[in-house]
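Quick entry, no commentary yet.
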Amino acid sequence: MRKKILIPAVLMLVLAIVYRFFSFSPELVGFSGPTMGTTYTVKFYTTPDTENSWGLKSDVDAVLARVNSLMSTYDPSSELSRFNKLPAGEKVDVSKDLAYVVDQALLISEMSDGLYDVTIGPLVNLWGFGPGKSKDQIPSQADINAAKAKIGYQYLQLDNQSLKKEKNIYVDLSSIAKGYGVDEVSRVLEVNGIESYLVEIGGEIFTKGKKPDGTLWKVAIESPAGGHEVVNRVIELEGGAVATSGDYRNYFEKNGVRYSHTINPKTGKPINHRLVSVTVIDKTTTMADGLSTAITVLGPDKGLAFAQRNGIAAYLLVKNDFGFEERSSDAFQAYLN
């Protein structure tokens, strides 16, 4: 009579794990949805540990809803909106998320000598690019001067998680909050063991890892002449953030003149130079988002000098009589090759 060979349960578990590992084939998964007045997209390759890949969408949606509830100026009940309603001299403890983003925005405000100003809100709203219905009207100089009197990043004080306004200012994080949203979604993927992914919100992008065939993630820089329909350049990233700011995305026209949503806090008016697009690569999408806006306000010459001085990887498209001229900082050269 033959004896049955009994395989220990531990050995069977090990064999099952080994079989699963060697028989696993990564799958490209993607999903998208609305957020922050725009849309988001997530793409990633599954791993042996990501059995419930589609379940991640609910986690991503929850994170983005939280960021919006903290930093939106369109939501009157958001943490930022509640702070903006406080009178001058008030101080309040805020979330770690809001404190971090304000800290990064204040850093860029300092770096740019106030040409990027986190308290730009009164001017953004005056020109019709903030909450409320846009009237597409040019404000009077008196109204511009009144709005400028309510601006000044130096009147916003952050001490750990304590935020204080020393003047009746209005904080607007629309130039940096989407970048933070990208970083937070990336963290969701990280904690779930995703090793190769791309996250995008309204054109701000973060990538990590290589594809299963060894190639890198490709990111397209759109042409101002064709918007999302025409690609100006394609860069490859194994990991890092890409953010693009442009005056061709959000504007209104009046009497044949185009007024950009990007406001110069010194003049109180939309930018009117020939720099139409700025792409920045950085370690975080939060900083890449804010820095691309800062360089856009600075303009083609001062903006490129700013990038060079601070070691920022920046790619600029400047309008000329024949189309667009490409300019890039030294730190961006590696991505062009």
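second:
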Amino acid sequence: MTRDDLRALVRTIPDHPKPGILFRDVTTLLLHAEGFAAAIDALAATVPERPDLIAGMEARGFVVATALALRLEAGLLLIRKDGKLPGATIAEDYALEYGTDRLTMHVDACAPGATVLLADDLIATGGTALAAARLVRRAGAVVIGARFLIDLPDLGGAARLQADGIETQSLLAFEGH
């Protein structure tokens, strides 16, 4: 499948969650077995060496990270919203458009020096991915990059990650909000 074929599998929902927003819905790509497999294969091909862990952010990021971890034969690190993980965790607050949120991971989820690739369905402003990177770094691991199915370049998230020293690639880009 070409990138144009994959792009055609992403549904655009106008005016969601508010007027003027074009919501890029990746669930329609995930429903298409051949398209989903091709997307994961294409993302995996951009990773120059196997990381120890693929870190996925809740919730659609879990899907992308799991498939990528299996494809790259790496472990899976779940980064969750606050209050979802049992046991000892570390947390990182981050800014949203209207307020803040918090991500957590187990304190022993990754060893110092482990190499970690971040993975999610979409990069918009970059707040979630940057918070995840801070968590991983606080644990002593090394963030070697980030991969996304979709980039919304007008929102600047990929640029923010790259400014933070995180090599970033996305499979598809959609202009506009």
